[in-house]
Amino acid sequence: MRTDPTYINSLTQSLNNMAGTANSLANQLSTGLRVNSLSDDPSAAATSLRFGSEIARADTFVQTASNQASMLQTTDSTLGEVVAQLTVAISLAVQAANGTNNSSNMQALRTQAVGIRDQVLSLANASYQGTFLFAGSQGRTQPFSLDTTTTPAGVAYAGDASVQSIETPGGQKIQMNLAGDAVFGSGTSGVLAALNQLISDMSNGAASAALRADSSTLSEALSNVSTQRALLDASLSTLTSTSRYTQTQEANLKAVQGTLVASDPAAIATDIKNNQVQYQALLSVISSLNKTNLFDYLR
Length: 299
Prior knowledge:
Blueprint lengths: L4 H27 L10 H55 L6 H22 L2 E2 L2 E2 L11 E4 L6 E4 L7 E3 L5 E3 L4 H5 L6 H13 L4 H54 L3 H24 L2 H8 L1
Antiparallel strand pairs: 1-2, 3-4, 5-6
Helix pairs in contact: 1-7, 2-3, 2-5, 2-6, 3-5, 5-6
């Protein structure tokens, strides 16, 4: 009785398939992944790829947000110091306007005012990691300069009015900077101009009414700085909360992605055992066949 060659071929193919399955199961066990290529599970692989893209986008935002938050905190701290300096300047203006100061006292008040003006100018030119905070989009250009050849001294702004923003993974745009002229003014208006006018009036022995007007102008400038600072604080708060939410979403996506492509060690162990049993059974069947007839068909 001769062996059916179709039957022999089927047994051989089954044996090869089981060997391939054994290798695949061993690979899943060693890598911890059920899906290592598109052919393993096209649907799961495609979904995992989409998750990977979302995770990468979230991670990029979180990293960018971290640096931007540091810059916003630096800007907020800078504006906080400006507020403190202007508060003192207003007090000096009130003292200068009380009508009881002699020339020596007025000179001392002027010296303090000049120191405040210079400090505020330095704060207006503050930078973070080499980028000027209040230059708009001209971050490499010092935004403010003082011209003391005029009376009162003049202020020039070399930045622009550009307001930059960062986009969240959800498409929301968060303001990241303040244009310098919106905070400090330029020319004959704004914080620095008000300080220059106060210094000039103190130098020239201006009437109390003029000094009271200087105090009022400085108060308006202080109010504007505080308003601009509040805008930036709102951005910082939104950026921080959005970054935390994005980190949570990123962690969730990674967990789902891991579950989607991860292997089940217990199930794999069972499959390997079953595969070995079937493999041995096939070997037994093949070895029981008439070897002579088998070789005849394998030639």
